[in-house]
Amino acid sequence: MKKRALSGIKPTGNLHLGNYLGAVKGFLDLQADKEVDNFYFIADYHALNGVPNPQDLRDRTLHIFKALISLGLDPEQSTIFVQSDIPEHVELCWLLTGLTPVGLMERAHAYKDAIAHIKNPNMGLLCYPILQAADILIYDPQWVPVGADQKQHIEISRDLAEKFNRIYGETFIVPDPLIKEDLAIIPGTDGEKMSKSKNNVIQIFGTEKEIKAQIMSIQTDSTPLEEPKDFDACHIYNIYKYFATPTELTKMQDNYRGGNYGYGHAKLALLEKLLEYFAPARQRMDELDKNEDEVRLLMKKGAEKARGRAQKKIQQVRKAMGLGEFYA
Ligand code: TYM
């Protein structure tokens, strides 16, 4: 039997380099393996705890869907869908709440980080990992390719699967996170983890002007132009290194060591590199932008494929828990 991989991306902003390197690259490797059945989705239910404007949410969901296809996910080979097209995720979430200790949710890193700056957190924020567990467990994947920030969420999903299986009998596969150590935490323009919720991202599909402005905002120290610079400590280099060839990297290191090479030069080199690297994807995005009817059809097909599987699983779960089954 084929092994399954599943992962999701939240439409709280446009796709950025951290999403690409930490997650989408891994999806593409898995898709290339003919022994793997791939499921990737846009986690729009997860975006609701930020109470987004409805049209913004719709636009971002569509953007991430198109972005995944532009970057190489193929709807013929992978099941690509929007979470809210499969309401069974929410049902399973509720079915798992009875197994989830409140303390476990209160101790989750993402929740603790959020409440450090949100005065009145909502229940969506607290229950986020249960919905994420439902997203995963409903498709029985062996692997969940993610960046390092999602590790704890996958651990919670594993705990809930094990607990359910212990109480109600073998029902769920206990999934493993797939985290590429070298790409686990991509830094943003301020050197902190690149994140849609911070103003530190470099987008992949922005206009050239937007991408240039994001690159120009990368924070640097005040070493004068003529002096040698430490590339390892430089946020520009620490993004450039993921996209450059070994020869280009050696050249960049020599430039930093040699002096008379300013951060402005390095920023322009990064801009050129990113535009070159993502040119084919950006071109595909332009084509999809012009063919939105086709995109919506692909979305519908993805939803149909995913929903069939989710419905089967939810029936199995309901039966195990003693729900329904009163009528033929
Ligand atoms: P989200 O939307 O924040 O991020 C999507 C994916 O991108 C990875 N990522 C990064 N990797 C490395 N460096 C970075 N700076 C960086 N920023 C983001 C994330 O680790 C993630 O893999 N809760 C999830 C969405 C989700 C999900 C799921 C994921 C909902 N249900 C089920 C897997 C399985 C999230 O907020 O991802």
Describe this structure in words.
The protein is built from 14 helices and five strands. It is mostly helical. It folds into two domains: 3-186 and 292-321, Rossmann fold (3-Layer(aba) Sandwich); 206-277, Tyrosyl-Transfer RNA Synthetase. The strands form two sheets. It has a three-stranded parallel beta sheet. Strands 4-5 form a two-stranded parallel sheet. Strand 4, helix 8 (151-168) and strand 5 (176-178) form a beta-alpha-beta unit. Helix 4 packs across helix 7, helix 4 (88-97) runs parallel beside helix 14 (292-321) and helix 7 (123-137) crosses helix 8 (151-168). The chain starts with a strand and ends in a 7-residue tail after the last helix. Bound molecules: tryptophanyl-5'AMP.
Write a compact overview of the structure shown.
With 328 residues, this protein is mainly alpha-helical. It has helices spanning 17-32, 44-47, 54-70, 88-97, 102-106, 109-117, 123-137, 151-168, 208-216, 237-240, 246-258, 263-277, 279-290, 292-321, and strands at 3-9, 36-42, 78-82, 143-145, 176-178. The protein starts with a strand and ends in a 7-residue tail after the last helix.
Residues in helix, %: 40-55%
Task: Record the strand order, biggest sheet.
Answer: 1-2-3
Helices and strands, in order, run as EHEHHEHHHHEHEHHHHHH
- State the shape: globular
* Low-pLDDT ranges: none
Work out the radius of gyration: 21 Å
Main structural class: mainly alpha
CATH architecture of the largest domain, by name, is 3-Layer(aba) Sandwich
